[in-house]
Amino acid sequence: MEDINNELNKIIRKANKQQDFSEVNSLLDDNLEKLKNAKTILSFDMEFDNRSGDNVVEIGVAIYNKETQETYSEHFIIEEEIGNYKRNNTPMEHKLMFAHGESKEVSLKSAMKSLNMLMKNSDVHIIYADKDKRKHLEKHDIESEFLNVQNLLRLNNSSNQPTPLTEAVQLFGKKEQPVHNAGNDAAVTLEIISEVFGDKIGMEKYESPVVIDYSEHPKKLRGEDIKESRKANREPFLNDKYTEQEVKATRKITL
Length: 255
Prior knowledge:
With 255 residues, this protein is α/β, with parallel strands linked by helices.
């Protein structure tokens, strides 16, 4: 991933310096062509127990079928990690606020098996940002030449700086559901490519179906607030209910 990002940095810096964006535009067009030609686009995300991405605690999948204009969504909570970690800056409740269906508690092996099967039956795979995800796919022998949406946004704007997901949700999401829930993040990534590139990839009319709307839930923290909290001091976010006590099990949290 580092090599890809370093190469992208060089291309964008060169384009801005020389004011010649032909290489940037060509690279973007090549990727958008893949999305345009795809009948099914699979978006996925993973959440981890720490900033190093050591253990997967959630996996989210959203698949859009252009022919039927239907979206299939999954959210897997990894059962062996329940109660073994705390979240920094993001409320633990976000894990339970899957807006696009019903969360399932399964083993990591089972979740990865399902992800692999769904990937094999989809034309193109996308992810918002690659941080630590690829290594877990490789660990489970899952092959995917996924497109990095964060990088597509950089190419589109010839931007030297990547846009965090929390900011992209504010800019391009239709209705903000709790972020850093892997299922919601997978779904909103489809919304982002629809909003930014929809007319070029045949997704102009895409809308992410919401089963339970958590956008106004009192225990939901806005993505922008999470971003600011992280930027300010990197201190753990603990809502009042759980201050000075560790959450022992996700099942015990009452929404």
